[in-house]
Amino acid sequence: MIRFIDLFAGTGGIRLGFQEACKKHSIGSECVYSSEIDKNACASYELNFGENPFSDITKVNELPDFDFMLAGFPCQSFSYAGKRKGFGDTRGTLFFDVERLLKKYKPKGFLLENVRGLTTHDKGRTFETIVNSLKSIGYNIEYRLLNSSNFGVPQNRVRIYIVGILNGNFTLNLNSDVGAVDSHKFKERNMQKSLFDFGEVVKHKIVKEILETETDIKYQCSEKFTNQLKNVIGNDLTKLNGVRLIDTRNGNSIHSWELGIKGECSTDEIEFLNLLIANRRKKIFGTHQDGKALTLEQIKTFYKKDNILDVSKSLIKKGYLSNYDNKHNPVCGNMSFEVFKFLDPESISITLTASDTNRLGIVQNGKARRLTPRECARLQGFPDSYQLLENDNAVYKQMGNAVSVPVIEAVISDLIENNKNIIDKLASPKKPYTLPSRSKNQPHKPKLVTEYVFANADEKESTTTQQCI
Ligand SMILES: C[S@@+](CC[C@H](N)C(=O)[O-])C[C@H]1O[C@@H](n2cnc3c(N)ncnc32)[C@H](O)[C@@H]1O
Questions:
Q1: Edge-to-edge strand order for the sheet containing 253-254?
Q2: In this structure, is residue 407 part of a structural domain?
Q3: pLDDT category, 268, cuts 50, 70, 90?
Q4: Best substitution site from 61, 95, 401, 405 to test ligand 1's pocket, by max atoms within 8 Å of Cβ?
Q5: Is residue 209 part of a domain?
Q6: Atom 27 (ligand 1): residue with closest C-alpha?
Q7: What angle do CA 22, 29, 99 make, to 5 degrees?
Q8: Helix and strand counts by DSSP (H, E) for the chain
Q9: Does ligand 1 have an atom closer than 6 angstroms to the CB of 35?
Q10: What is the pLDDT of residue 100?
Q11: Same domain, 172 and 33
Q12: Full DSSP string of 83-137
């Protein structure tokens, strides 16, 4: 039996993957503590694990005995937080709490998950600090950069997974593999593989395999938006597959002025703005990389029509163009689009994020619609038995924040399969543990108390009647 704790628990993606790997290898596992501050994530967690993890980990000092820590902690720079003590000072960051609890409880192992940028953050110093700190506590560590798309999940999501074992050498067979840079490259590579690679080991799933067949009408794009899209691409909406809606220069994209989101634009107005976004980064207009604001004189070098003044005035009036100090820039922002990216059903999804998973689209049966919350859960490898809240927006946010379940399962399975002696130690028989006491402002309701191993009948009696610890 492995006793684990689940910090920054979110909706429990790491926990699901961990439990599944243990189950697959006939190892018992028991979550003895979980922590999460987002109320909706807690509700989701409670719905699925029977346990409300609501607690701020920065305020938690007492934990029950545990063997393994799971923690998908948010990434923060140490250089600012610890500026008075130098960049090695982790105080004021959430990693500090991971470090604090590892130091205090010295569990036999841990799995940490974070964004890919953790390795490059603050010129690599953040990651260096983390690695040094974990080693100084006594952990040997292995880390891998893995792309969810290589684990049967149709999403381009690269994350770092850090495994640590206390005072013990161990190996992982999985190799870091960040996968294809984008869904287009993925499609090319995947097609070539299926043509020539008959003994393919990795089964790549694509978006069309996770789509629901029947979806509520509320996910359909509005008639107005659909007509705006048809005005640009024609009646065949499948031309939207893989298209991004964005007001900056981008390969396969449609802009708000082409759709007429803020008011219809003439052909000349569209040409003006398309030329402006294509040319404004050029070195002749200045050395900095970002889109530069240009004067009409500068714009005249690529938009050569006589109506330039009228066109620019009209675009300013409609809100597509800004004019400060006689310098012009498109007014950008993708928030105005009902859908900001239509996924290609024959490829993988872009990375889900907390802020815009609710505006991912798909064309299915000739109709343009947004992805459903269930489809987003599938894009993170959550099984359909995982119950979703009725609050769609909360689920979109949760799935954007979540960890891909099958990747965790693969990492833990790798650890189990290649390090038998360590796992034997981890899963050794346990004495029953005592539940931690919690203050009133830390209302933690563990899973159905009867599922715990109790020290004695009295304890069982008191916890069952109190329900919450
Ligand atoms: C990347 S998500 C974790 C995802 C999750 N581990 C999973 O498996 O799906 C990070 C989570 O940390 C939570 N969080 C942030 N600060 C926290 C704190 N002080 N105490 C507990 N949880 C916190 C956030 O609300 C967020 O849900």
A1: 253-254, 244-245, 341-342, 360-364, 367-370
A2: yes
A3: very high
A4: 401
A5: no
A6: 10
A7: 100
A8: 16, 13
A9: yes
A10: 94
A11: yes
A12: GGG-TT--TTSHHHHHHHHHHHH--SEEEEEEEGGGGTGGGGHHHHHHHHHHHHH
Q: Same domain for 39 and 152?
A: yes
Least confident of 38-52, 281-295, 446-460: 446-460
Q: Which amino acid is at 32?
A: V
Query: What is the distance between the alpha carbons of residues 170 and 412, in angstroms, rounded to a whole number?
Result: 12
Tell me the three state secondary structure of residue 364.
Answer: strand
Closest C-alpha residue for ligand 1 atom 18: 56
**Residues 278 and 416 reside in one and the same domain:** no
At residue 245, the 3 state secondary structure works out as: strand
Amino acid 186 reads F
Type of residue at 84: R
Banded pLDDT at 186 (limits 50, 70, 90):
confident
- Residue 431: the pLDDT is 61
Query: What number is the average pLDDT over the span 381-402?
Result: 97
Query: Which residue has the least CA distance to atom 13 on ligand 1?
Result: 8
Q: Is the CB of 375 under 6 A from ligand 1?
A: no
For residues 341-380, one letter each, b for 16 or more C-beta atoms within 10 angstroms of the residue's C-beta and e for the rest, the string is bbbbbebbbbbbeeebbbbbbbbbeeebbbbbbbbbbbbb
Identify residue 295 by its one-letter amino acid code.
T
Q: Is 56 in the pocket of ligand 1 (CB under 6 A)?
A: yes
Query: Which numbered atom of ligand 1 lies nearest the CA of 402?
Result: 9
- Residue pair 119/127 in contact by the 8 Å Cβ criterion: yes
N-terminal to C-terminal alpha carbon distance within the chain: 22
- Mark whether 326 and 437 lie in a shared domain: no
| Last residue within a domain, chosen from 286, 302, 332 | 332
State the DSSP code for 36: B
Higher pLDDT, 68 or 79: 68
398 within ligand 1 shell (Cβ under 6 A): no
- State the chain's mean pLDDT as an integer: 85
pLDDT tens readout for residues 70-118: 999 887 656 554 454 555 666 668 888 999 999 999 999 999 999 988 8
The span from the CA of 376 to the CA of 354, in Å, is 11
pLDDT at 359 over 50: yes
* SS3 label, residue 290: coil
pTM for this entry: 0.85
How many domains are there within the chain?
2
Q: Which long-range contacts (CB under 8 A, 24 or more apart) does 321-328 make?
A: 321/273, 321/276, 322/293, 324/293, 326/295, 326/296, 327/293, 327/294, 327/295, 328/276, 328/293, 328/294, 328/295, 328/296, 328/299
Task: From 36, 39, 352, give the residue whose CB has the most ligand 1 atoms within 8 Å, as the site to mutate.
Answer: 36
